[in-house]
Amino acid sequence: MDPLPMPYILVMVALVLMSAYFSATETAFTSINKTRLKNMAEKGDKRASLVLSIAENYDKLLSTILVGNNIVNIALASMGTVLFVKLFPDYGAAISTAVITIVVLIFGEISPKSIAKDTPEKFAMFSAPFIRLLIWILTPLNFLFSLWKKLLAKIIKVEESAKMSQEELLVLVDEVEQDGTIDTDEGDLLRNAIEFTEQRAEDVLTHRVDIEAVPIDADKIEVARLFSQTRFSRLLVFDESIDNIVGVIHLKDFYNEDGITDKSIEELMSVPVFVQRSEKINDLLKELQTNKSHIAVILDEFGGTLGIVTMEDILEELVGEIWDEHDEVIEDFELIEENKYIVDCSADFEDFCEQFGIEADEEIASISGWVMEQLDRVPETGDVFDYQNLNITVTETDYHRVEKIHVIVNEPEIDDETNDDN
């Protein structure tokens, strides 16, 4: 057996290093955090700017890497075959295949890709100058590959869509939260922001039966009393009925330094914003800001008053409940004993189903409406009914509306025959 020719060995080592470089570069550019690089580029990092400019044309980058990697690996395999056939005439080809495959897998693929995956930005900035030079050298080939790609896209009819769906964004937030990059509060805020544009006015409104309003001819003492009782900073004004809201009175306009103002209610009130129930709340927020208003009146299909949405209602969809010193903290599901709850019926029906693990096909917004549907009549205090594994008692009503219910969660029964078998 002839001694190993050193030039062959050196060239093959260089080819393995080149293979590692191309593999690591591909992994680094697919794993980079563009937001982090943009921040670095804004601070004057030229390498970060170069990486971003290369990454913007990923097709050229990828074709350059693939061409370079294939040339290197083919050259390595060819030299390996020549070398091992010279050393082992009978089995050189087989030995070359085994050795080169193992070397390329370990040192040309797995190891460099693992390293680049852990520090993608650093390696991308390290490799950017050389890969830019190769992209320039291989420009004619890259042009041909781009034409080939367009031809394939027309034949296969590939639909390009770089936009992420809302579901994909929510999954991404969950993954980032699980990785520990953001905490639970930040994750909730991001989820609320993503789902924000899908919410409509009817999803967040205060129903008309809960609206505090005064007639246009109301006595000012009555208005002052309502301001004091509700602690609201604004009150709606209606003419004849709640379906004809004509204005909004602000507390700061109602009082002056001498007490209650001498101006009439008509002079004090401002024109409210009127919108349809299907208005998206992000559009409603812009409309309130444009009109410098805090309250929007939501109209039903007949032009009557369905309810109201305040600026606070919309912001709570983003940041969660906003409490001030006058707000009464109400628990929607108050546990009083084991498997026994007092439920506030103004809560969302979906939350009720989730809390008690029940399934319901009814498209109802509030628990109060669901109770009325189950009883098929106007509920009264003391009404009792069962639903799945729940025993429900109406404990409090107001104006034919259920305010609170008592819920007992019954444990699932165990079949006697199963017990006997056990």
Explain what this protein looks like in three dimensions.
It is a single chain. With 422 residues, the protein is of the alpha+beta class. The chain has four domains: 6-156, no CATH class; 166-196; 201-319, CBS-domain; 333-409, Uridine Diphospho-n-acetylenolpyruvylglucosamine Reductase, domain 3 (2-Layer Sandwich). Helix content is 55%, strand content 17%. The chain has 18 helices and 14 strands. Strand 5 and strand 6 form a beta hairpin. It starts with 5 loop residues before the first helix and ends with a helix.
| DSSP summary: helix tally | 18
Q: How does the helix and strand content classify structurally?
A: alpha+beta
Radius of gyration: 35 Å
Query: What low-confidence regions span 5 or more consecutive residues with pLDDT below 50?
Result: none
Strand order of the largest sheet: 10-11-14-13-12
Q: Give the overall average pLDDT.
A: 83
Taking the sheet with the most strands, its summary is: 5 strands, antiparallel
Summed up, the domain count is 4
CA-CA gap between termini: 76 Å
Total strands: 14
Tell me the overall shape: elongated
Helix content: 40-55%
Strand content: 15-25%
In short:
This protein has 422 residues and is of the alpha+beta class. It has helices spanning 6-31, 34-42, 46-56, 58-87, 92-118, 120-137, 139-156, 166-179, 184-196, 201-204, 220-230, 251-254, 265-268, 281-290, 311-319, 349-356, 367-375, 416-421, and strands spanning 206-207, 213-215, 234-239, 241-250, 255-256, 259-260, 273-276, 295-299, 305-310, 333-337, 340-344, 384-387, 390-398, 401-409.
